[in-house]
Amino acid sequence: AQSVAQPEDQVNVAEGNPLTVKCTYSVSGNPYLFWYVQYPNRGLQFLLKYITGDNLVKGSYGFEAEFNKSQTSFHLKKPSALVSDSALYFCAVRGLGGATNKLIFGTGTLLAVQP
Amino acid sequence: EAEVAQSPRYKITEKSQAVAFWCDPISGHATLYWYRQILGQGPELLVQFQDESVVDDSQLPKDRFSAERLKGVDSTLKIQPAELGDSAMYLCASSFLQGSGELFFGEGSRLTVL
User: What topology is assigned to A3-114 in CATH?
Assistant: First the structure.
């Protein structure tokens, strides 16, 4: 069965420093991987996705993610964190559920960027 | 910019009462999803529609939950009777292509069952 794991409940980083939010996955076949962000009391927003091709995927708001097949990881990164990046981040994998190919989300990582 | 509309944003109800949530997806998006997000957890798919047809409701508690998308546009999710454990955020999302994984979410409807 497809699954994702986000090992850190919270990540703290100082503004201006690089940030990494970790994600590992388990999937049969080629993975389709995604990152979403959720601000307080809001719905989720799509950040980026990996389907195939270059292992470094660039997305919205200066975020990028690195796909590593040997480590089954898809970590989210940003070279310089902003206070406004503080939010809940979800990694997701596309499951193989018949016609649906539904998204399976991790439990989320709270990113706190201190000024 | 087009958005997914949901109402109500907040709903407080007593257990055993009926509650309904409404969603209007982005125009042209044939695929519509209802997710439930319990505090501290990731969203879990309840039901997925392709146009007016249900393509996945395997995680929908059908004894008390129902969902419809009669004309293939807006959708309603109903709970009857509500239970304490139903307290959660109910998120509606839509996508242009089924299976693309790029979903557009509404702001959600937060349900509190007392």
Answer: Immunoglobulin-like (2.60.40)
